[in-house]
Amino acid sequence: MLKIECRTGESVEVAGESLAGADLRNLNLHRALLEERVLDEACLDGAELRNAECSRASFRGASLRGANLVMIELREADLSGACMEGVLATLERRCSRASAVRDGTPRQR
After folding, report:
1. How many domains does the chain have?
2. 9: domain CATH number?
3. What is the pTM of this model?
4. How far apart, in whole angstroms, are the C-alpha atoms of residue 77 and residue 60?
5. Closest CA to 20 of 48, 39, 4, 46
6. Tens digits of residue pLDDT in 79-96
């Protein structure tokens, strides 16, 4: 069992030993502390990630369909191959040096 701490003082327990490939669908991860965590291939569809700290985290191949990413911190995060269809987001200044794939073409750094 893994515990995800949040700046709200709450924590979320997740089954398994790794967040990679984890089913985090529809979880309330508001203000979650996910800095430098590996969430590759994880399912975060519909998750509440508002104000989450995800700097230098890896979301390679993750599914974030319909997730709330408003004010999420994604500096230097790896979103390569992540599906972000239908996300709610304000990412203008919070994604510096984040890497992503668009239409199957890797972004050049």
Report:
1. 1
2. 2.160.20.80
3. 0.83
4. 9
5. 39
6. 999 999 999 987 655 555
